[in-house]
Each structure stands twice: as structure tokens, then as C-alpha cells.
Amino acid sequence: MIPRLAMSPVACRNSSLRKSYVEISRFIHSQRHEISRTLSSQCPRNGYRSFSSSVLRRQIEPNDSLRKTLNGYKATIRGYDYPDSSEKYAMLDKHKLGSHIELVGYLGSRRDVSKVLSFALLRDADQRFCVQLVSSPKESVETHLRLRNLKIWTPVLVKGVLQERQPAKDDSVEGMRLINDREIVLESIEPLNDFATDIIVKNDTVFPPEQRHLQIRTNKELREALIFRGRVTKEARKRLCVCRFNEIETPVLFKSTPEGAREFLVPTRNKGLAYALPQSPQQYKQILMASGITRYFQFARCFRDEDLRADRQPEFTQLDLEMAFAEEHQVMHEIEKLLTILWDRFLGINLKGAFRRMPYQEAMASYGSDKPDLRIKSEINTVTDLLSQDLISKITPVSNPVVEAFTMNLPTKPEETRKFVSSFLDSPEGKPFLENPDGQPGVFISDHSKPLNGLGALGPQAAMEWPKKVTPPDGGLLILQARKNEPFSGGFTVLGNLRLALHKAAVAQGILPPLRGFRFLWITDFPLFSPSNDTDPGQGGTAGLSSTHHPFTAPKTPEDVELLLTAPEKAIAAHYDIVVNGVELGGGSRRIHNAEIQEFIFRDVLKMSSERIEDFRHLLDVLRSGCPPHAGIALGWDRMIAVMLGKESVRDVIAFPKSGKGEDMLVKSPNVLTKGQLDTYHLRVKE
């Protein structure tokens, strides 16, 4: 017999505790089991429910309206595929007459011939095809009444019998192909959703931006522009991949760096810290060049908090491209190849040999713009030496000015030309030119019925010696404009803008025909730096200079590198813009690939503060790692698609564009932050 061991007081106490724990555990287990049985008795036998608390939800008793909605919604849950819309419509003439057909689409216009006969159109989901429905109570009284009660644009599921019909006069309806020799005798029609009764849709209904979805649904031209954009993007991606470019995505949450444009900031929950949305993937793609990626591209979303115009949006898409071990002409060559393919593939236009190259100074002197529209023939000429000082003093208060002129050939009589010019200058478009601080434009109308052809105000000698290239024909215009005798800077002159505005007004009034075709050119040899101004923030340096393109742009030649030491404002950039029909499609440059030169420009040329230079430390460290020479470009994809389609605004090729105030009128953004959101991100609204 084994003797029992005596237990110590501590052991007895632990034994009691263990016994207590076991009893508590059994009690809790039994209670859980009882709760489980209670819940199980309240759940359906074929399912389970879980609750976040012991409080059970009260069952909802639906009223008649809710029950009707629930039943209608349940009827749209098919459990099998809907028929392929467009393909099935296109093949209707291949189906045997008398066969049963099932189609989905949008209900179109309806014509009630009598109480017992109605005709309606059914649009396919893509609105490429439509077919006629025939309805009568003979087939189904319920279906006939339902058809008559459904609103146009209701999405429906239709079942019926295919039969032959008398061909209609036209084989298209509202831009859709009408299935002309077939119709469907309606057996049933099921609405797949309600179309609100307060939405009025007619052929001439113009929907506001708040109803962008209805703009897209009812406007074929807008839908086709969006589809066209997708096709062009797909083709561009395909061609770039063939040319050994690699598509790589870069982050959208970036950091604030002074590249030149204002940024959108994204606050974080870490107090005082914020991301910045990228103005472009510029720095990331340069980092990729140092990472061994030789050819990169990306359809990049970019964000800039800048003043909006017809060709600008706060968020936009650009085709971003960069090449390692490359010079400017190699990038330009790749872009010419791509644009030539796209224009040929989608517009049937051959662009081979169409890309002229023009230095910035020539563009500004001859057209008053760094993105000239070469389809407008008249060029600007300097005429200062041909004018008397007395006449110059009458047209400008500027001392020692430059006076420039251009002619505008109009197929009108002198008196009609006077009326046109007067109406333009009295309009809002003409007002800025009359308020020009350098003086109002001098307007002369050629009239061969008057002495010196009506140009006597120029002075007898000037009228006699006036060059032919700025001598207008009878009824034509001669425009003079003075400006300060300073080097060109910026993207336009007053006379350049006046030249464009007058031409646009003449086209709008039917005096001149609309411009046709495409005229491409490269603008090169931009100034590396431009004088700072109050409109653009630039890089925030104290030198009074800002980078014309961006601060990573390289000087063009060794001589321009030397000018950085003595006269940086005279240095020329390895910068190039691709322009067509007065629109800048994109801009690019060879980049600075040397860290010491890049930091020298930040510190000594632009005179940026040490704190701002440190914002670029990541890039400087990357360049130090043996980054190869590289160059690239970014094409404004929204602008390019708009140009291809002849649209005035990029809003016409963007699915959900922002308004002129930067607002999305459909979803109502941006919206006011709540107090809770402000507190989360440690923000407060400054009064």
C-alpha cells in the first residue's frame, strides 16, 4: 500500500483555486450552450446568423412600397448570364423567322397606333443597334400595359418572336443602325431598374454637368470620344512596347518639392506630415534611369493646383516617357514615329516629313507665340525703323520700343472690314488689347479708292516704302503694336495673341473659312531660365530666375554650361516642345545627370535655400550613383485626343472632368471637411 502524502497549505489553496476555475468554466460553457440553442431556434433551418451583441434586431415589416421595390429588385437577379447585347442584335437577320429571341437594352421611343397596337424601339446596351418591338394585348395584356407605362431609357429584358418587317426608309435612327428587315413581337418585357419620373429626356434635352452620366448616355459624340480615347491609348501602349519601352507605374503619394507649379497636399494622421500629389512622375522616372531601366513609359495621372483654362484640368493624364543613354533628337524621333502611327491609324493622315523644327526666338518673333499655329499664314515683322518717331509716340507710351506688324487678308470690302474690326474691339475679346499698358494696337484698313491705299497715316515715306510682306490687299488689315525692347520671355506677345483672336473672330463671323489639317513642329532652344513672376511659384529661389521647363533640364551646349557662371539668363536649354495647330502637345528635355551640377544650379544659380535643396536630396543621391545621361518627354494625353477629334476643350474627351472652378459637379467634390476629419489630420481652418 502506497502511503498518502500530506499536502501543504499552499498546495491545498491552489487545488481549491483550480476547482473554482473548473466550476466557473463549466458554468460559462453551459450558458453559452443555452444562448446558442436560443439563437438556433430563431434562425432558419438552412442558414446561420451571427450577432454582434445579445440584442436581437427587430424584424422589419415592409410596407407596400418597400415590398414592391424588393420584389422588383429580386426579379432582376437572374442567376445566369444576360445575352451579349450588340453581338446578338447584329446577328438578328441570321436567326430563323419565328424563333424566340431574348434581348437586353434601353427602351427607346414609343408610338401608340391604337389601344391595341404599339411600336417601340429597343436600343442595344452599346447603342450601336436598335430593333423595333411590336406589342398588342393579343400576345399579353400585362406586357402590353407594362410597355406603355415604362419610360424611355429604362433598362429592360425583352422576350419575343422574331418576324419579318417591311423595310424602313432609313436604316439608321439617332446614330444607331436599325435592324431594317426584322422586328420582335413582344411576349414579355421586364424592367431591370426604374427610370425616375422627374428626369425628362427628349431629343433636344441638354443635361447640366451635375448629370454627367446622362450627358454620356444620351450624347453619342461624347461616348464615341471616350471610346476613341481608349482605342488610341491601347494602340500607343502596343507601339511603345514594340519599341522596347517598359511600362512601369510610379507612386501617386509623393512629397512636396519645388518643381514650378503649385501642388495638392494630402495630410496624414501623423501631425505635421503630408504627402503631395505628383505634378508629374519626373523625379521617379529619373530614378528609374539610374536603376537600370533603359526605356520607360507610363500613362500617368498628374495633379497641379493651377489656374484652369479650356486645355487644363487640376488632374490630367500624360504619356510619360524617358530614355537612358539618349540625347534630345532620339526622344524626338521616337515621338515622331508614335504620332505618325496614331495619325495614320485613326485619322488616315500621313505625317511623314511633317515635323518642322523652329527655335523659340524665331517662333516668338514671327508668330508672337511659343506654340504657333502654322495654318495661319501671316507672320509678324519688325517695322520700327520704317515709322516716324511722331507716329511711334502716338501708339505707345513706351520709350525706345519695338514696333511690330502683321497683315490679315480678308475677302471683304473696306467698309465691311471696318465694321468687323469695330465689333471685335468693342467685344469682351477685344477689350484686353485696348487696355494694354504698352499702348493700343494701330489698325489700318487698306482701301484702294483712297490716296496711298488708305495707309497715309503711316506717313508718306512709310506708305511709299512699306515692305510688300506687310502690305495688305484691298479690304485687308494692317495691325501695329509696340512692346518693350526686351528679350522674349514667356509664351506669347500681345500682338501674337491679337493675331489669333482676330482670326478666330473672322472665322466665327464666317468671313474666313475654318482652319483644316494638322501642322506639327518642334519648338527648340528655349531659355534655360526665365524671370520669376508672381503668377507661377517657380522653385522659390532668390535669384529672380526660375527654370523655364523644370530645374532638372540640362544646358544645351558646353557654351551654355559656361554661361551658368556669368550670365545664366542667356543660357539655352536642351528643351523641346511638340506643337500642333497652336496647341502644345507636350514638352521634354535632356536632364541633368550629374549630382554636383544639379546641386550647383539649385544653390548658386537659382539660389534656393538649403532647406529646399534638401527636399531633392533623394534625387541628388541617386544621381551620385553613376546615373547615365538621359532624356524624356511627356505628352498631354487629354490635349492630344482633343486635337485629334477637333474638340475645343479637353473636357469633351474626359469622362468626369472638373469645372472651371476645379469642381466635379456630379459627385460634388471638393467637399467641406468635418470637424472630426480636421481633428484626425491635426488641421484647423484659418479664418
TrEMBL record:
<protein>
    <submittedName>
        <fullName>Aspartyl-tRNA synthetase-like protein</fullName>
    </submittedName>
</protein>
